[in-house]
């Protein structure tokens, strides 16, 4: 099965194309078939709210492949066999709390039996409980209620620890691994035990982390205890996330090709999210950190600012511009007849490709306009009158830019140095207070710069680290707060490079632009059935399932990488730099650019889901007979939430890797990222556009004057939406940063700083011997007990004879 049609994007057939959204703020509009290369400015704004996760029901349904559908009935059968042996006349929902607890304890005891078949049956019965005992429920809301009740019950009786032990046994099961390695084709049947365990664990973590105001007080206590345990090294002396990372590397090394990687990655993502916290928690941690370090508060809440942004109209595509230029040439020829028309044309800026609505477009006042953009010379008149807009359609926006400008200390130093050398002829190094001899306007400039000076937590952490390195004795021992992020970093530190390579390998295999290669890893082990489909309908269903499976893997990996980068950056900047550098070394930057080098609009509007087969809908409703039409139709949503979420995450990762790193910014230029990123601006979603514009801004100065001249609408959008750095010459390219850069030296210096940090804080065995305390007391040194090996004790007489008695000793020299 090929995933990736024209240009590597997901294939979109005519019926799917007809399902694309055709409604917006102004009602319906006629659709004309357009080529993928043409501008998609007629698409409405996507009503997408970025969050840590999708809705709970969607996150539950993505755990299961459609191929696993028959297993719901099998789980129910296993539960009812166990249940009817003890309770014959009542349903699970009719029992009281004591009976529920007693049965849960019986099932937990059953997990400790030796027989694998018996143990799997009990595990399936527990999974049925975690799925909400759906046979006794009449609607999805009821299933979700009983899921929450049963899962807190299972947690209370100690099920999770037992599952972790069983998962460890399965990971170390060498017989299953060697059998899977020898098999030519791996299917769902090879990972049955692992899938059942991972399903229960995922349902527990995902359900418990959901906030519900109706929770009992004891449930809230259980939740906090579970969060602490999950992030602590209680399971096999390491946090659960480290164990799951180990599974990822074992899978990628080829030693365990049967591991159900989608479920492992989903559980890993939700474990990190639950233990470390999501984006709201990150913002509050950042505020607290700044308070602790005595830094001024943040100028604004970035989450709120981004949510209030509106999407801009995408810039014109190449085909539109070529067509426009041809028409312009014809119009110029006609206009020679009338001199006044020619004069009017000459007054117009020849580089502007937009009509008189440009100012409104650029100010976001006309963003919900759905008509295709038109250009001034496509009509008969050369200078058209302004188009009137009904007052009801105009949206009022606060005046000014969304972000407060920022200035770094380094920027102020550079400005003062250049001013002093220009006006006085000498420099004062890092002195930012002395302004003697400088003109009055320079004084005003410095005052404005200092008003907007921003000191980040990272800068403070780096300066403290320099102190620890320079004066270790006077600064003393560093107090490290053992929070969940610190414990996780210590757990993954020894093998972090391998973990990053493994995640990127799986991301590459799941990307829709990747071609199937013989040497790439097989990530479809937990989606392919034992018997391959025989009918067209089954093949279509499997095709949807495979595409959906890959999309979910991309979603999980992008979320894992972004969460880790953000949490490590707040915990300590060098932890973030260590992870970021290994991502760069593992070719993360070209991989993300390759991911975006597709028809991104098709990817975001892909309909790779069959809503009637999604859990919990499929277990409480009679399933209709599937037809080719119902498979093609998908759901009626305007876009695919998970795909838009993945794209935003990958753009944010790319921003994190390249920010303030000139060598990595030049990688964006070398890999010709500008046209790829510019195509992504077609997606009318404000947050995605913001991160694309940020990436374009950092490389604008390297792209040349011609690029800037022909992309003025993009430049305008950057000015409008991206934060300003005062005296940042991003739009021109005549500052120091635009000159050739010693890329290797920059990365090497950063790597040396990271290694010094890691060895100082974590490598206690190789601490500097010069700083170790010395025992000068003869009695205590001689009185120390030294454990000698057995063979030495047996041959002690021989050693004395050879080393002491047979060698002459010059006592005079020894005493001197």
Automatic annotation (TrEMBL):
Q: Where is the composition biased (Gly residues)?
A: 1-10
Compartments it resides in: Cytoplasm
Lineage, top-rank taxon, reads Eukaryota
Q: Which InterPro entries match?
A: Far11/STRP, Far11/STRP_C, Far11/STRP_N
Q: Return the annotated region ranges for Disordered.
A: 1-41, 314-397
Cellular-component GO terms for this entry: cytosol
The UniProt transmembrane annotation reads none
Where is this chain compositionally biased, Basic and acidic residues type?
25-38, 334-355
Q: Does the keyword Lipid metabolism apply?
A: no
Record domain Far11/STRP C-terminal: where = 439-796
Q: What does UniProt give as the signal peptide span?
A: none
| One annotated GO biological process | cytoskeleton organization
Q: What is its main location?
A: cytoplasm
Sorted keywords for this record are: Cytoplasm, Phosphoprotein
Is-annotated flag, keyword Nuclease? no
User: Biased-composition ranges for Acidic residues?
Assistant: 356-370
Task: Domain (Far11/STRP N-terminal): give its ranges.
Answer: 43-341
Per the record, the similarity remark reads: Belongs to the STRIP family.
Q: Which PANTHER family match?
A: PROTEIN REQUIRED FOR HYPHAL ANASTOMOSIS HAM-2, STRIATIN-INTERACTING PROTEIN 1
Any idea what job this protein has?
A: Plays a role in the regulation of cell morphology and cytoskeletal organization. Required in the cortical actin filament dynamics and cell shape. Part of the striatin-interacting phosphatase and kinase (STRIPAK) complexes. STRIPAK complexes have critical roles in protein (de)phosphorylation and are regulators of multiple signaling pathways including Hippo, MAPK, nuclear receptor and cytoskeleton remodeling. Different types of STRIPAK complexes are involved in a variety of biological processes such as cell growth, differentiation, apoptosis, metabolism and immune regulation.
Protein name stated in the entry: Striatin interacting protein 1
What is the species of this protein? Xiphophorus maculatus
């Amino acid at each position: 099965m090929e995933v990736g049609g024209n240009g590597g994007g997901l294939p979109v057939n005519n019926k799917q194309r007809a399902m694309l959204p055709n409604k917006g703020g102004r009602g319906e509009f006629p659709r004309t078939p357009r080529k993928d290369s043409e501008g998609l400015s007629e698409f409405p704004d996507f009503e997408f709210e970025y969050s840590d996760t999708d809705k709970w029901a969607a996150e539950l349904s993505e755990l299961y492949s459609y191929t696993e559908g028959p297993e719901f009935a099998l789980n129910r059968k296993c539960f009812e066999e166990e249940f009817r042996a003890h309770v014959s006349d009542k349903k699970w929902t009719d029992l009281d709390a004591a009976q529920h607890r007693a049965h849960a304890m019986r099932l937990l005891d059953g997990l400790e039996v030796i027989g694998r078949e018996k143990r799997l049956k009990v595990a399936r019965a527990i999974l049925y409980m975690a799925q909400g005992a759906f046979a006794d429920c009449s609607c999805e809301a009821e299933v979700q209620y009983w899921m929450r009740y049963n899962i807190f019950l299972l947690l209370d009786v100690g099920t999770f620890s037992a599952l972790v032990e069983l998962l460890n046994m399965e990971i170390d099961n060498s017989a299953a691994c060697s059998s899977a390695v020898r098999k030519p084709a791996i299917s769902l049947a090879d990972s049955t035990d692992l899938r059942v365990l991972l399903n229960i664990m995922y349902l527990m973590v995902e359900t418990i982390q959901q906030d519900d105001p109706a929770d009992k007080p004891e449930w809230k206590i259980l939740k906090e205890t579970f969060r602490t345990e999950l992030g602590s090294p209680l399971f096999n002396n390491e946090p659960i996330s480290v164990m799951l990372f180990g599974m990822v590397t074992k899978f990628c090394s080829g030693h365990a090709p049967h591991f159900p990687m989608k479920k492992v990655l989903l559980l890993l993502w939700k474990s990190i999210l639950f233990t470390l916290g999501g984006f709201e928690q990150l913002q509050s941690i950042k505020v607290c950190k700044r308070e602790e370090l005595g830094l001024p508060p943040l100028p604004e809440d970035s989450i709120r600012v981004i949510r209030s942004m509106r999407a801009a109209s995408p810039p014109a595509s190449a085909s539109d511009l070529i067509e426009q230029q041809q028409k312009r040439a014809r119009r110029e020829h006609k206009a020679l007849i009338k001199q006044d028309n020619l004069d009017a044309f000459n007054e117009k800026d020849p580089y502007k490709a937009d009509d008189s609505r440009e100012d409104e477009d650029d100010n976001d006042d006309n963003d919900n306009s759905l008509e295709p953009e038109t250009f001034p010379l496509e009509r008969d008149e050369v200078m058209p009158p302004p188009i009137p807009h009904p007052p009801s359609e105009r949206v009022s926006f606060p005046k000014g830019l969304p972000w407060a400008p920022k200035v770094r200390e380094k920027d102020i130093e550079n400005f003062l140095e250049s001013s002093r050398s220009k006006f006085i002829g000498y420099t004062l190094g890092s002195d930012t207070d002395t302004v003697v001899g400088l003109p009055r306007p320079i004084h005003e400039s410095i005052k404005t710069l200092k008003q907007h000076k921003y000191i980040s937590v990272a800068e403070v952490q780096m300066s403290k680290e320099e102190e620890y390195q320079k004066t270790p004795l006077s600064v003393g021992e560093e107090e490290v707060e053992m929070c969940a992020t610190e414990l996780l970093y210590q757990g993954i530190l020894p093998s972090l490079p391998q973990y990053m390579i493994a995640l990127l390998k799986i991301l590459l295999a799941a990307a829709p632009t990747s071609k199937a290669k013989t040497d790439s890893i097989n990530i479809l082990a937990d989606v392919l059935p034992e018997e391959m489909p025989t009918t067209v309908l089954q093949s279509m269903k499997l095709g949807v399932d495979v595409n959906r499976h890959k999309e979910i893997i991309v979603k999980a990996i992008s979320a894992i990488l972004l969460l880790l980068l953000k949490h490590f950056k707040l915990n300590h900047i060098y932890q973030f730099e260590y992870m970021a550098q290994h991502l760069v070394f593992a070719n993360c930057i070209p991989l993300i650019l390759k991911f975006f080098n597709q028809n991104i609009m098709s990817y975001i509007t892909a309909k790779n889901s069959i809503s009637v087969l999604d859990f919990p809908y499929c277990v409480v409703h009679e399933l209709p007979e599937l037809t080719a039409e119902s498979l093609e139709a998908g759901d009626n949503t305007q876009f695919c939430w998970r795909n838009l979420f993945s794209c935003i995450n990958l753009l944010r990762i790319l921003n994190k890797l390249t920010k303030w790193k000139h060598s990595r910014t030049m990688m964006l230029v070398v890999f010709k990222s500008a046209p790829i990123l510019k195509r992504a601006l077609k997606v009318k979603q404000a947050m995605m556009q913001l991160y694309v514009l940020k990436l374009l801004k950092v490389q604008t100065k390297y792209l040349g004057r011609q690029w800037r001249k022909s992309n003025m609408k993009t430049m305008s959008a950057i000015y409008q939406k991206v934060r300003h750095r005062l005296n940042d010459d991003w739009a021109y390219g005549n500052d120091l940063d635009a000159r050739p850069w010693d890329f290797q030296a920059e990365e090497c210096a950063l790597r040396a700083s990271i290694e010094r940090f890691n060895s100082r804080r974590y490598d206690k065995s190789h601490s500097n011997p010069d700083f170790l305390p010395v025992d000068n007391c003869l009695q205590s040194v001689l009185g120390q007990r030294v454990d000698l090996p057995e063979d030495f004790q047996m041959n002690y007489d021989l050693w004395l004879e050879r080393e002491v008695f047979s060698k002459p000793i010059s006592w005079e020299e020894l005493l001197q």
